[in-house]
Amino acid sequence: MARLKFTEIIQQLHAGHRNEQIRLADDIARHGLTKKLSGFNASTGIGKTMSYLAEAMQQESPIIVSVPTHQLAEQVMSTAQRINRVLLANGLPERVISHKKGRQEYMSVGRTKRALSVCEDTQDNIQLALRAALLSACESSNKDSLITEFITEYGGLPDGISRRDICCNIDDKDSALLDSTLYEQQQSDFIVVSHVLTVIPHGLKSLPKQFRSGILIIDEADALVNIANSIFSKKIALSTLLNVATSLKGSVITKASGELSLATKGLREGVTMLSQDGLVTDALLNFKSALGRYTAIEAIHLEDKLDDFFSSGMNNAAIIKTDNKSRISQFSKFAARGCATVFDAYQHVCLLSGTLDVTSSKNTHMKWLLWQLGYEEEDLKFYGFYEPKEFGRISLFIAGQDYPKPTIAYTDGELNPSFTTACATTVIDQSSGHVLVNTSSYREAWRLADELEKQSNGKINIIADNPLKPLPSVISEFQENDDAHVILITPRTSAGVDIRKKTGGQLFKHMFITKLPFSPPPDLDELEHLYTGSKNRQELSQFAYIDSMQASTRKTAQVFGRAIRASTDECSIYILDNRFPRYDKKSAHSMLKGVIPLRFVKQYVNATYLDNPKSQPGAKPNRQMVF
């Protein structure tokens, strides 16, 4: 079959290219699309999406592209459609492209009507208009019936109605758009799916028959492991335990319930491993013991659930507290190990990532990822490592030890107000023009936005990201703003999206990373049980360390990669979390050193360390870039 060279496609798309991107595309064509299992670690910004799509779309086999986020799925779809136009213009077969969203993205007509019918009567004209708009949207056969589209358009749902009330589920798929989407998938030979579908049992088998074999491309393959671990963890809401205790009554269960409530009340926001908090562990065990005194069905059921929950021990269990809600979770660190069996049905499986160098190198050949997915090292037939030789310039600034810590120890996990204040001061003093600020959460983004508004007296245009708004819309608002100083604050930059001018040029020259994300540590005992006889304790410890830090480092590396996307880009990058390790010193978080690309090691060595801006009264703003 006739085909276009990668450079020809790039030229016709009027897109820039780099030598490493051409090498990546060539290796995907020669190895990824000819061998059973191949791996490609292409540093962020090389252009791996264009590389694998340009080559794979010229094959005759059906193609599945699995990605971790909705934003990356939209980017893949957009790039594939551009390549399709080039193929068609050159007389080559085009691909029929489809995108499989989850059922929960589509509003069900029946469920929406039932939810509206039980709403309380109201005379509020805004609520009445919102209900009418919702009814009209759910009956639509176009994108208006997507829940995200409605929330974006109207800012939210009518009072008393939640997303869960009105969206399709496994029993109710009453959506005209969902029906038409399923038909499109049946007619297509190229489909973009979520990593969630890839890791759940029979997920890929739920696709139309043509996608039961062919080419499987896993973009951001290391994220596949983290998503699997999250999906298959056991969870029990703390409110469930306390509600059952209330219904049972009696002094013993009441006392146990009170002790459990008190023990968890003082926990910080985020993840607290039970192995590190004996008070909570004892309270849970006492609560389970108290349940054993009752013969009520709900008590027996809950005791059995807790027995099952703790059957594998406390080492990998945690209390997760977010938005004043707590749940007990038992993490499954090896949930992705069944992927190898599922992937075996495909002719060619390509594992790609921009951050595998965090856990792999040219010598280790993706060892960590292969173990997690259930492969043996000898299963990998090709591994390519792609790092650009020349790629823009940066100045690097890192918070010193005097800089306020992100959180206060022994609290409920609230952000340290001094950290938020210092971050706002640094952003205002050290930047101008378009500025990108990357946070660890929406809550942090909103608090920082308030502080920036306060310190700047409203003179700076601040765009605070909102989870109800699609990221492309937020980026578009940032792109179209021509104020002298405009700041975008978002926790979503680890999704792997480009934030550039609509013409393709560099949009911002100052980028800030505030609080670093961290994930809970792994269970060494479970590792030892799984690999009995194959690894010594020291190697298991190293593996466990990699497992616990990998997700955090991957996210931070993705964020770092937003700054430099072309060889002509220049950016000042500020890392404001003083837990980020110095280049020349050992640290408990030394893996985070891998966030800095090899091409910028010199700048890392010579990084400027920032003091607490409040300890320097009268300091003049520094708006100059130094390279």
How would you describe what is shown here?
With 627 residues, this protein is an alpha/beta fold. 40% of the residues lie in helices and 14% in strands. The strands form three sheets. It has a seven-stranded parallel β-sheet with strand order 3-4-2-5-10-1-11. Strands 14-15-13-16-17-12-18 form a seven-stranded parallel β-sheet, sandwiched between helices. The longest helix is centred in the C-terminal third of the chain and has 24 residues, at 537-560. It is globular. Residues 529-534 and 616-627 have low confidence and may be disordered.
Shape: globular
Question: What is the distance, rounded to the nearest whole angstrom, between the alpha carbons of the first and last residues?
Answer: 49 Å
Uncertain runs with pLDDT below 50, 5 residues or more?
529-534, 616-627
Structural classification: alpha/beta
How confident is the prediction overall: mean pLDDT? 83
Count of helices? 23
Let me know the largest β-sheet: 7 strands, parallel
Describe this protein with a few key phrases.
single chain, 627 residues, alpha/beta, seven-stranded parallel sheet, 23 helices, 40% helix, globular
Compile the SSE list and pairings.
Elements: H1 6-12, H2 19-32, E1 37-42, H3 48-56, E2 63-67, H4 70-89, E3 97-99, H5 109-117, H6 125-138, H7 147-154, H8 163-166, H9 176-187, E4 190-194, H10 195-199, E5 215-218, H11 221-231, E6 234-237, H12 238-248, H13 251-265, E7 270-273, H14 278-291, H15 297-309, E8 317-322, E9 325-330, H16 339-343, E10 348-353, H17 367-373, E11 382-386, E12 393-399, H18 417-430, E13 433-438, H19 442-455, E14 461-464, H20 471-480, E15 485-490, E16 510-513, H21 524-530, H22 537-560, E17 570-575, H23 601-605, E18 608-610
Parallel strand pairs: 1-10, 1-11, 2-4, 2-5, 3-4, 5-10, 12-17, 12-18, 13-15, 13-16, 14-15, 16-17
Antiparallel strand pairs: 6-9, 7-8, 8-9
